[in-house]
Amino acid sequence: MARHILLLHCHDLGRFLGAYGVTTVTTPYLDALAAESTVFDAAFATSPHCSPARASLFTGSYPQRHGVLGLTHEPFGWDLVDPTTHIAHRLHRTGYRTELIGVHHESRALPDKELAARLGFDRVRTGGDRDVVVERATEALQRAAASDRPFYLQVGFHEPHRSPSDRDRAGIMGFLGDRVEPDSANGVSIPAYLSDTADAHEEIAELQGAVRHMDEGVGAILSELDRLGLADDTIVVFTTDHGLALPRAKCTLYDAGVGVALFLRVPGRSAWRARRITGLVSHVDVVPTLLELTASAPSDDIAGTSLVNLVEQDAPARTFTYGQLSYHTYFDPKRSVRSADAKLILNLSNAPRAMDPTQSWMHRSIPVDLTGPTIGTSAVMEFYDLATDPDELVNLIDDPAWSERIAAFADALWTWMQDTEDPLLSRPASPRHALALTTLEQIARTHSAASIGART
Question: In terms of domain of life, where is this protein from (predicted)?
Fold first, then answer.
């Protein structure tokens, strides 16, 4: 049984990797890791932006429960309700040496020593570009190799987050920062939800360069893990927080916003080697999985379910995954429920249909469904047949052929919101908010009544 855990994560990646079929991006190190791992093809974050998603990843709880409903840095200031639910605390209590390097965005921003004490880390060193993160992670592995204690090392890369550069055009924040070079050697992959334009090619080439840059950092850390002789005793997890920082992706509950790369290399357990799992999994499932794989004590305050039986016993995957957005740079409350082949989204405000995550006022990539001068406001509810419409472009909410399935999804979403004690259920903030809740509850009750009638 592997003792150690190396959890590698990055910003804003979605599934934009060779391992997920993106042929134009250069990611040899992550592709090689994926080839030795169990790769989850249908893994989803709980939120399409950084802090709520990461807090779920590291606690196993939904945002409504862990309390991080928005960004944790100033001036937003969201924080974990109970920092002791962080996986570092859980592992530290069982004797693990715990360390955080690079990106921290799952709890309120504090000095490193204060963060360490609050979250259960022996040591925290936040910030730094790729090379700083690699240097610190390498040093941490060397110290861990000289210790008899098992280690949990949490390493976060800033890349491929957008970063300002003097090479950017006026009014634009791209992906270049100080060190990234665009990569279009193998062409560029324009997501199907974006228009194929010259500006989009420029932007995606930058993104591909940033992903390649991050991949090289992952390769350097994994090489050091091998050199120290730790690879055969270390579970390696790789994931990201949410989808790409592009229009109609990040900050939306479409799959492009919440779909994530997730793979685990688990030495000594043959069922985990070179596998692809197509069933639904959620970021909340990662913590219970790691606790089971390391024989650490489980906890009944975790919403997720261990993936061990899914991988090793072919147990059924999830029926649903759930998503939420409350606050990013403004209040834009949304909730979603997704099955293997369909999705329902509830929009509780009149905000634009897709929040702009480009961090610029001058757009390059443009959504394919932008047909007028503005992107417009969102519908109260959206329903998509993912089998025929994977990019979620045709809203079927008013199609009577789908009414029964819509009712079933509404029932599942309403139940989840109640189970998580969702704060949006009380005191509606606007007429749209009240309308959305009333509509969801009415449709959910229709399904519940039909289910009772079928049983009697």
Answer: Bacteria
